[in-house]
Write a structure and sequence with these properties.
Helix content: over 70%
Largest sheet: none
Radius of gyration: 21 Å
Oligomer: single chain
Structural class: mainly alpha
Shape: globular
Number of helices: 6
Strand content: under 5%
Distance between the termini: 33 Å
Length: 156
């Protein structure tokens, strides 16, 4: 949020994408770095979070100031709207799909694991889209009826 406010106010301009993307990739690689000896401190995870925050800020700035990125396309916009519902259901779908294996941990060769993972992703995305359309959007509309600022502009 702090980065978003800084970018929005113009107080800070993030890195260009050609620098932010490699940093995010490096941050992802660092996520597996070991903890500091004798502690639970994960410096690699801190780098991962920081570099991905820079990437998000860079993408937002690119969309706002330098023309649009692929994220401005309608498909990606819709996936963004559905993302909260996806977050809510994806672990339930993964647990359901993998429940047929002992301890819920399928150990499959990649040729079988990839289609299973894609199927779980597709199922979770479909459920998320339905939840977004059937529950989240109507709930937002219902809640906005009680927003005094919105009522004042509507005239009611």
């Amino acid at each position: 949020m702090s980065l978003a406010l800084l970018v929005k106010s113009g107080a800070w301009m993030p890195l260009r994408l050609r620098f932010a993307v490699p940093l995010a990739v490096a941050g992802y690689a660092l996520s597996e770095a070991p903890t500091l000896p004798g502690t639970d401190v994960h410096p690699g995870l801190a780098a991962t979070v920081g570099f991905f925050a820079l990437l998000v800020a860079s993408l937002a700035a690119a969309d706002a100031h330098r023309g649009s990125t692929f994220l401005a396309r309608p498909l990606w916009q819709e996936l963004g709207r559905v993302s909260f519902a996806f977050y809510l259901v994806h672990l339930l779908v993964i647990a359901s799909v993998s429940s047929a294996w002992p301890d819920g941990h399928p150990e499959l060769p990649w040729r079988q694991a990839v289609p299973l993972a894609l199927a779980a992703f597709g199922i979770a995305l479909a459920i998320a889209w339905v939840l977004h359309r059937a529950v989240e959007v109507p709930a937002q509309r219902w809640l906005l009826r009680f927003d005094p600022a919105r009522r004042a502009t509507v005239g009611g």
